[in-house]
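Onboarding guide, step 5: your first structure request.
Type a short instruction followed by the sequence, for example:

Predict the 3D structure of this protein.
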Amino acid sequence: QLTPSSLLRIGQLSNVDLNEDVQELETEVPRQRPNEIPHNEKLLSLKYESLDYDNSENQLFLEEERRINHAAFRTVEIKRWVICAMIGILTGLVACFIDIVVENLAGLKYRVVKDNIDKFTAKGGLSFSLLLWATLNASVVMVGSLIVAFIEPVAAGSGIPQIKCYLNGVKIPHVVRLKTLVIKVCGVILSVVGGLAVGKEGPMIHSGSVIAAGISQGRSTSLKRHFKIFEYFRRDTEKRDFVSAGAAAGVSAAFGAPVGGVLFSLEEGASFWNQFLTWRIFFASMISTFTLNSVLSVYHGNAWDLSSPGLINFGRFDSEKMGYTIQEIPIFIFMGVVGGILGALFNALNYWLTMFRIRYIHRPCLQVVEAMLVAAVTATVGFVMIYCSRDCQPIQGSSVAYPLQLFCADGEYNSMATAFFNTPEKSVVNLFHDPPGSYNPMTLGMFTLMYFFLACWTYGLTVSAGVFIPSLLIGAAWGRLFGISLSYLTKGSIWADPGKYALMGAAAQLGGIVRMTLSLTVIMMEATGNVTYGFPIMLVLMTAKIVGDYFVEGLYDMHIQLQSVPFLHWEAPVTSHSLTAREVMSTPVTCLRRIERVGTVVDILSDTSSNHNGFPVVESNPDTTQVAGLRGLILRSQLIVLLKHKVFVERANLSVVQRRLKLKDFRDAYPRFPPIQSIHVSQDERECMIDLSEFMNPSPYTVPQEASLPRVFKLFRALGLRHLVVVDNRNEVVGMVTRKDLARYRLGKEGLEELSLAQT
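The system replies with structure tokens like these:
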């Protein structure tokens, strides 16, 4: 049993606080911060808003669409392709930048430490080398953690859960900002160079998404630049499609796997899909891989030889040497089971760790201290393992970048050092390709054990870092160990080549942690450049997913749930047919009349207790005999633009001919509409009337109140709605269904459970 104090000693993780406004308020009001934040995973946070995937088809929109002729639509289509090409090129360049900088900085660090170790091995006093290594690591990680914790907390972690939420339709503050991209890229470089157990692959997906969101909007609020060219795309529908292309381009730059990128976007990300989108996304991924490939080839000095398709290159697996036979299939399936169990263990440990971090390590300064602690511990563990290892291998014929001799004979190097004294990507490739007999089983066993806990402790620190490479590394280590022990058992039989088992172990471990199936199979096939292994990899990943899901959910889904994000899965919970829209909807609904007093509108928008974002518009007849039926729906953002431009009925009747609002005025305010507090309405203007008929969406989606929850869910999820109005049989508004009302119901251990909503 672990007591809380021993848990404290193990050390634990910080969750990304996605709300900066709260922090700004806290700095203004000097109050005592609590030592413990009570956090319950059975909550849904109300601070996340939904994205509007559904266009508001008001009169302005319809007029503009009718004005556009066929040629103009073709121009828009061409612009889409141009944007996709630019996304690919820029994502590829960012990946190149990360790769080159990491290679040079890490190389410098390892050379310095290696010279130091060689010097002190001769004359004693190796503790200085340890001190140097740990200090270098901790100081680099400190910088990387400082920028994340204090400048942009969203950039922490791999960014895949955040992008997954964004593509699901949840608006996470600052997730696709330029500032986030800069912090992300610098943070990744620093955390990989700082020797943490992290990879630079996951953050590429986030970086690609930010690039996509930025380019498609044709402007940057951070840089105060504004290009008129891509104005048509300034709405959630278009932006979200481009973000899924960016995520795919990120995957394909990271692994050199364009098809895997498209499938990743389909499996993990996009909630909405059509064929044109698939083809454009594939185009973006291909361009991204090609850009990375050509730039890195030029950098490595062989300009015409396109040999480095991704940030990680698993190297070629030859089919002749490394085929597999039918009797190995059960062995692979068994490895899948092991991967699933280990993955579930990893996720469970990380879950407790993250809960601890949310509760206790929520101040930025504590988060930085924890990151430095992890960096120093990682270096120390590595050093102690290398120091204690007596596993010596001859240098002849081996391709070790930084061979450490330590206490080995001349002409030999320490093989534990190839695993620890290297960037994780290189270690993975070594485990895949080193000839049989390069590693002692003892070395591999100890390495797996240590690295498992280090990687688990590292994921969720306040540094930007991915979990892909560490899980591949853990898997490759125990897979190779498995292969070695098989050839012991079969007395050195030819088919037990450890490299092949390292590959299967890596797939099993990664599948057990993140639970991706389709895209991961294709990514592994593309990264190894070998189709023969498609079937065993698929079997391994399926087994790992089934076994892992039996215990605990995938790492990304777990972090989404821990952040209390209202995430909608593909289907409604299985047992929810008994619920109807009447029980799910929020009531009472704040309705506006079609011609409304400005004062009323301002008061409704300023009311902080309700803070609604969509208002049904009803008929404004004064006599009570007629039914106040539903006429349309208007959004908060539209109302704010109307108030800002002072579109009041009285003004229109005066001789001053006022310019009519165009859609452009709404687009220019997107995506950051000013808060209602910043709009000044005088006392006289409060008495004016405002006519909503040409701005409201006259045909909002509605459901009758008897509709069952799965039916409501399907409509909401498939169309990407933000508001769904519930009406009775006389077309009167009785309620409103939003994302939170649907995300509240979740299948728990005992059956259907309802989460409570919280303001945090």
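Each response can be followed by summary notes, for example: The chain has a mean pLDDT of 85.
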